[in-house]
Design goal:
Blueprint: H1 8-16, E1 24-32, H2 34-45, H3 52-66, E2 73-76, E3 79-82, E4 88-93, E5 99-104, H4 112-127, H5 135-143, H6 148-162, E6 180-184, E7 205-209, E8 213-219, E9 222-236, H7 242-257
Parallel strand pairs: 4-6, 6-7
Antiparallel strand pairs: 1-9, 2-3, 4-5, 7-9, 8-9
């Protein structure tokens, strides 16, 4: 069998995920981003190298700070713990074609320009393997043979997620992934994606950005060709309900219509 089939990512997923059994809910929203793309283009022409991903990531962080702070929490020892800031894990493509992640601390305090500069540096480091999120824990797990790998993974998850014990030597703590995970699957050609809630993450939600497509939409009573995008989210039903995520999606609609509010 080709060794590339059993790569490091598959070694990790084989011990991280179990059969679906946890309570989770899903939501999605389709947005007209015709005007937002024009805003992004204008900002890029002005020297601010942003994309739709920067806008949506910052909008989600602001939403958790301003309109739905009760989502910005995690479960530890059966209790809900409020986070002090909105920290975000962004999934990015590494140089080997696999996914890695970078973490943006206090994301709600960034401007679009500051976020752009910060992510440029963080993504470059991650792709070089220098600043990869949770690198020590990943390297440990993939180096251990089966079935010890499963036992070690379960033990780490039991200590950190169930009992809230941090393991600094591995860079792992109860909320290692921050408030939520954001991933742009549109960059790999998917229009819509429905994410998983990774058991190690302890995040309240995972948000997926799809690709932008041309669609007929009704604008001021007229059918027009518009640019549309779908955002999907998997939500931890222990801390998130429909009313809360509704407020978040409503905020996103406001940002799409007036992205200047992020500045």
């Amino acid at each position: 069998m080709d060794d590339s089939i059993n790569n490091d990512w598959r070694k990790l997923t084989a011990v991280i995920y179990q059969k679906p059994r946890d309570s989770k809910i899903f939501g999605s929203v389709e947005l007209d981003v015709t005007d937002l793309e024009a805003f992004v283009k204008a900002r890029r022409q002005a020297g601010v190298k942003i994309t739709l991903t920067h806008v949506f990531l910052l909008a989600m962080a602001r939403a958790l700070k301003e309109v739905a702070p009760e989502i910005n929490c995690y479960v530890r020892r059966g209790k809900i713990i409020q986070r002090e800031s909105v920290d975000v894990s962004l999934s990015v493509l590494a140089g080997n074609g696999q996914m890695t992640s970078v973490k943006i601390l206090k994301a709600e305090n960034f401007t679009l320009q500051a976020l752009s500069l910060h992510l440029q540096a963080e993504v470059q480091m991650a792709r070089k393997g220098q600043g990869e999120h949770l690198k020590s824990a990943k390297n440990l797990l993939v180096s251990i043979p089966w079935p010890l790998r499963q036992w070690v993974a379960d033990f780490i998850r039991w200590l950190t997620i169930d009992y809230g014990i941090a393991l600094p030597f591995l860079g792992v703590k109860p909320d290692s992934f921050g408030s939520f995970v954001f991933s742009n699957l549109g960059s790999v050609g998917l229009d819509v994606g429905y994410p998983a809630l990774a058991p190690f993450s302890n995040v309240s939600m995972v948000v997926i950005q799809g690709s932008v497509t041309d669609k007929p939409m009704v604008v001021d009573g007229q059918v027009m060709a518009r640019r549309a995008i779908t955002l999907c989210a998997a939500l931890d039903h222990r801390v998130v309900d429909g009313a809360q995520i509704g407020r978040v999606f409503s905020y996103l609609r406001r940002v799409v219509k007036d992205p200047g509010i992020l500045e």
